[in-house]
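Operator note (shift B, R.M.): manual run for AAA-type ATPase family protein requested after the automated queue skipped it. Running by hand, logging everything below so the morning shift can see what happened. Input copied straight from the record, untouched. If output looks odd, do not overwrite the archive copy; leave it for review.
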Amino acid sequence: MEQLVSMGFSSDLAAEALTATGGDSIQKATDWILSHRSSPQSTATLQPKLDRFLRLHPKALAPAMGDDSSKRPNPKTQIHVAADDSNKRHKLSSSSHRQHQPLSERMRPRTLDDVVGQDHLLSPSSLLRSAVESNRLPSIVFWGPPGTGKTSIAKSLINSSKDPSLYRFVSLSAVTSGVKDVRDAVESAKRLNLEGRKRTVLFMDEVHRFNKSQQDTFLPVIEDGSILFIGATTENPSFHLITPLLSRCRVLTLNPLKPNHVETLLRRAVDDSERGLPNSVEVDDSVIEFLANNCDGDARVALNALEISATMATTRAGTDAVVSIDDAKEALQCKHLAYDKAGEQHYNLISALHKSMRGGDANAAIYWLARMLEGGEEPLYIARRLIRFASEDIGLADPSALTQAVACYQASHFLGMPECNVILAQCTAYLALAPKSIAVYRAIGAAQKVVKDSVGQNEGVPLHLRNAPTKLMKELGYGKEYIYPPSDPSSAAGQTYLPPSLLHHKFLEWPEGASGDFQDQEHRL
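Run finished. Output pasted below as returned.
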């Protein structure tokens, strides 16, 4: 703010400009002030102060271009005065800034009609369309994978409204902003509300990065209408956002883009010479198809890979460059996999693996295993889940399954990735094809329920089952009348082992003398 004030702007105007532009760039804030607040009279007053500031701070408005100051443009070329006497105001040149933006940012949709792949949210009868047409936007949380249009839809809502001038869009990121930035934006919004000029739409990207106390700051201002809140998150709101915030917002889910949707966006970038690729670059259809099928529904990944491919082709061939499939493969390096080892996708995939094995589908189980390994999952985590599965879902139907799972864990620990992949696959296939029984799983669950439900009334161990290591304990009857089964099997058969209140209670439903059908197991394998 100090730099803006030293240019001659008031502290209130400087604070409003920083809030409106996100507070991460003096250049953006200056551009906003000169575009929205300067008058012909104030321009003449500000010019000497701007010139003096640029002489004292030649790097203040220059874009970051590494440490080599010789590569930085002259700051004075960044600001020019319009020659037309009827409109003498300063303008920041945005062409240089736009040139350095990633292709995914330059091609961002401007209106809701430009958004593709989220028809369930943008149909004519949808909540968002109705809100736009009535100029009554609700507070919203957009939840979806990266590159599916959360930020684009948020910005397009304002541009698509009947009167965009009624709204002021303030964009913050929970990665770089804190509570102070939110408070500054809210104070500015309240001033505008009192003046009856504009309603402020506060967009908070990656809102799940805020902790619970930070999220609490949104509650009163959403409640009293000081701001319209729009949050964007890639994480499940049920786990990462506080319940009071969710109760004040509508959660709208975005789906991963399908290949045909990504193709549409890539062709736009190729055909749009102003915002997209230069006319001198030609892109084969095979390149677009390859990127669309290998970006895992993430438009940002596809567009940025296309831009890198075009740069490689231009560097190699100069003008009239043709982007080949090899350029695209080199730019993408490998298929992009959406996977988060601590988030919802992690639990979705391990659930799919577990249920595929339970259903006896070894092919599906090995596929989900491969998805987890390629996504970077810790192999020992998978091995631990296989051990659990061996007892929970197979149990006494094939007792050797537990031995197989433990051996799998030990072998995976010895070898590590990538060599342990086949060990995990072998154990996964064995467990999927093994006979299943949840008798033990149900038995321990039923026993634990009985223990919990009895609260403080759990009976003591019957005297004949108690240990009697001392003379006093023997005198008290510990271990008295206990029959040792190996010495007297016939008499021991009538001996009871449960507390009196649970006599004849059955937890394990298992036929006497039954065991796993190992011949059937060998046949299936």
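Quick read of the result: The chain has a mean pLDDT of 81. Residues 207 and 294 are 28 Å apart (CA to CA).
Leaving this for review. - R.M.
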